[in-house]
Amino acid sequence: MYKVKLIILFLIGSISFAYSQMSWQSTLVSVDNSGVITYKADNNGFKIPDFSHAGYKGGGVDLPAVAIVKTISPVAGDNTKNIQDAIDYAGSLPKDAAGIRGAVLLSAGKYEVYGSVYVKYDGVVLRGVGQGEDQATSSIIYARGNTPAQRDVVVLGYSTSQVNGNTQQSGTATNISDPVVPVGSCTFNVENSSLYKVGDRIIINHPCTQAWITKVNQGGVPYPDPSALTDPDERWVTGQLPIVYNRFITNITGSTITVDAPVFYTLNKTVSQSFCYKPNLNNLVNQVGLENLRIDIETLGGEDENHAWQASRFKSCENSWALNCTFIHFGQSGIITEACSRGTFRNCTAIDPVAIITGERMYNFNTYVYSQLNLFSNCYARNGRHHYISNGTSSTSGNVFLRCTSDAINNASEGHRQWTQGMLYDNLTEINMKRDFVLGLYNRVAMGTGHGWAAVHSVLWNCNVDATYGKIALQQPPTAQNYAIGCFAKSITGNPISATNFALGYVEGQNKAGLTPTSLYEAQLAARMGVNTAVKTPTAEGFYIWPTSVDNILNINFKNSGKETILYIRSFTGKIINVVATNGNSYTYNTSTLPTGIYLVEYFTNSKLYTSRFIKI
What we know:
The longest helix has 13 residues, at about 80-90. By secondary structure, the chain is mainly beta. The protein has three helices and 53 strands. The chain is about 5% helix and about 35% strand.
C-alpha cells in the first residue's frame, strides 16, 4: 500500500538535475540543483516555515531498535494485570546510555483487557508480532466492557496529569526584545540571555492580549444572535489562547538565541510582549513506543457509545512512536496526542470507529492540546468524521501528516479549533469520498465551542481530493496565511459552507501535475540534513548512487579496479548494516528491510574512501 522514497546526498562530484517537461516549482518554495531551498514571501510578506523538525528527536533520526526484555502470552479472562506486570518489570530495569530500558513482547494471541494499560516509564516499548486479525499470527489487545466509561485502552506517557510546560522554573523568564520575530524564524533576541545555556529547553510564550484578540477579530467568532437569548458569547477573550512553543536552544551569541525549530506565527511586540522561560517538565516521559500490534474494542456496533473510547493516548511524552499498528472500533481516536512532542507515528491504521456521528467523536488521528512537532507518515484512516485533525488550540503546532490516505471520510480532515499553527498536509490522498468537502484550513466560526480560526500558517502540499468532485476550504486568517500548492480538487474556496465566506488563502498550481519537490517535508528534511534528490555525475572513480523508479531500490555504480570491490552499507552512526563484495561495476541494493533513517554507502578504491548517503523515508 505504501511507497518509500529514497533521497540521495552527494559528498563528491557534481550534479545533473533535470526536470521533466511537466515539472514545475512553487513561486514560494523552490529547490536548486544542489538541493538548497529558496523561500520567497507571498504578497503579505509571509514565508512558508520549515516543517522538517517534526518527528522523533526532531526529525531525520532513526527510531531505536529496542531489545526484548520480557515476553508474555495471553491468559484466560482479563489480561490487564498480565500486560501491566510485564511493563512494570521493564520499567524497573536501568536505562542504557541512550535512555532505553527494553521492549515487552506480546506473543501471538488475543489479550482481553477490561481496564487500561500504562506504558509510563522512559525507554519502554509495548510490541506485538503482527497487527492483523488472525490470532495465530498477530498480537491483539481486545478491550472489553466500559469500566470506567469511555476509557483509554493503552496510555503511553505520564497518565496522571498533563505535563505541558506551563510551570516556570523560578528566575528564568526574560522578554523577547525584537519588535517582530517573523513566522519561520529560529533566532530572536532576548533581554537577558545569561539565564540560559546551549541545550536548555525553553518555552516561548506569546500572551493572549486584548490587542491581539482585536487583531484577529475575536477569533472570527460572531456575536451571539441577539434574538437567541440563550446563545453563549463564544468570542475569544484575553488570556484564553496563549501561543506557546516547546524548543531547545542550539546557540547563544550575545543576546541572540537560536532554537531547534521555528516559530509558526509572527511574534509582534506591538500586540503582545512575548517572553521565554525554562519550564518544569520533571514528569515528562521520554522514548515510549507501541509496535506491531492491533487494538480492537468490543462494541455493539452502530451508534453504541458504551465502550472504550481512545485506542491509544500518547500523553505528556516526548520522542515517542507508534509503528505498524492497527486501531479499530474506537469511539474517538485511534491515536490521540496530548502534551506530546517530537513523536513519529508511522504505518498505522485507524479504522471503523463506533459512535454517534457528531462532535467530539471519530477523530482517527487526533493531535490534541500541546501537541507539537509530531510526524504521522504513511497512515491510513477509514470511516471517521475527521481523519487527520488538530483538535488542539493555540498550544498545538508544527504537526505533519505525510503521505497518508483518507478513506470514506464523513466530514473533513482539518484544523479544527482555535488557532492551531503550522499544520502540514503533505501528499494526503482522499478515496471513496462520501461528500465533496473533505479538507480544510479555514474559519469554523461558531461551530463547536467558538472554534473560529482553526488553522493558520498551514499548508496543503500536493494533496489529492479528486479534481472532478472534491472541495478544499482555504481561507486567509487575519495576521497570517494558509496555503494550497499543487493540490487536486474541483474547487479550492474561501466559501466552503454557507456559514463562512472569508478571503481565499494562497492557491498555486491547482490541478497541475508535476509539482517539484513532490513532498515539502521530505525536501525540507533533505535540505536541512545536506541531502540532494538529484542523480549525480560520477567522479573520476565512477562512484555514484541513485534511486530507481522502483520502490526500495538503490543503484550503486563504481569503477572496478580489477579485483573484488567491497561496499559497506552503514547506519548514520557508523554501524555496519551490510557488506557487499562484487566483481562488477555496479550493485543494486534492496532497502526494503531498512527502517526509516539516514544511511551511508562507502566505496574503497586506490586507498581512498568515498562516501555517499541516502535517506529512507
